[in-house]
Amino acid sequence: MHVHASGRSSRFADRAAKMLERVEHRPALCRADREAAYRLRYDAYLRQNLVNPRIDGILYDEVYDESPNSLTTLTYIEGELASTVRLHAMADEGAVSPAHDVFPDVLAPLLRRHRVIIEPARLAARADMARRFPELPYFALRPPWMAANHFNADHIVLSCASGHEGYYRRVYNFQTWSGARSYPKVTAKVICIGLDFAAERERVEARYPSFRSTATEREALLGALSLSPGPVKTPMGPTSAGECPTT
After folding, report:
1. Which of 49, 122, 123, 243 has the most neighbouring CB atoms within 10 Å?
2. Is residue 153 part of a domain?
């Protein structure tokens, strides 16, 4: 998702904080939720010419979507799906993540020292929801921020298309950690940007209150996310999860 921010970001932040009661984050654990995430990814990436057209209309990463240290989340505004992001939690060199594969020289030294790293990947938003709710960037990036709090992370790392890093630098103080490289299933070159989460957490949450969360809220969203790699799963396909519960 290409995120825009105007010079009135503080006004957006205030509005986002007031809107938070209309926002819900969910883990994509069942078949329908996972498929919704994969289709939203594909639509958003195709719209930005970041992927080639596919007949199945989904963007599914077998290795990364099935890894035990990853979790795909969905963000809803007023009950409508607005965005999705996959989270990777890492604390050693056995962790599975696209940034670890694309930028091993950047991340491996940190992981050898057992630094805790959260990587948001496959961030995508619905275009119509982004138009209706200009505060959506704050909500879309809230799950990785919650994960960083949940695991007391040292860093958050992002892979983004070169030229799209301005928002992350202005709002969070991300720094450029690499040059441009190829990225799985994406047509554009990406760079690695990193945030010293431990150093920036209080400042960002003071300026953008919508990033604050409770331990109960974090556990409800992230309880299925493991910091350790765990046993390798046998990939079963993009819609292999169980059925969603009915109400």
Report:
1. 122
2. yes
Which helix (DSSP H) or strand (DSSP E) does residue 112 occupy? helix 104-112
Considering its fold, how many domains does the chain have in total?
1
**Are 184 and 98 a contacting pair, CB within 8 Å?**
yes
Q: Give CA–CA dist 156/200, Å, rounded.
A: 11
Compute the distance between CA of residue 75 and CA of residue 80 in angstroms, rounded to an integer. 8
Instruction: Look at residues 157, 187, 151 and name the one whose alpha carbon lies nearest to residue 175.
Output: 157
**CA–CA gap between residue 126 and residue 107 (Å, rounded):** 31
Q: For residue range 43-76, list pLDDT tens digits in order.
A: 999 999 999 999 999 999 999 999 999 999 999 9
Has residue 227 been placed in a domain? no
Q: What angle do CA 105, 108, 110 make, to 5 degrees?
A: 115
Q: Residue 225: name the closest of 26, 20, 58, 1 by CA.
A: 26
Is the residue at 64 inside a domain?
Answer: yes
Instruction: Give, in degrees to the nearest 5, the angle at Cα 205 between 79 and 100.
Output: 80
What's the one-letter identity of residue 138?
A: Y
This prediction has a pTM of 0.89
| Rounded Cα–Cα distance for residues 222 and 70 (Å) | 10
User: Is 4 inside any structural domain?
Assistant: no
CA distances from 194 to 5, 119, 148, 200, 209 (A): 19, 9, 13, 11, 21
| Rounded-to-integer distance, Cα 187 and Cα 222, Å | 31
- Residues in the chain, total: 247
| Cα–Cα distance for residue pair 97/103, rounded to 1 Å | 10
Here the CATH number for the domain that contains residue 60 is 3.40.630.30
Q: Taking every pair of C-alpha atoms in the chain, what is the biggest distance, in angstroms?
A: 48
> Residue 106 — very low, low, confident or very high, per pLDDT cuts 50/70/90?
very high
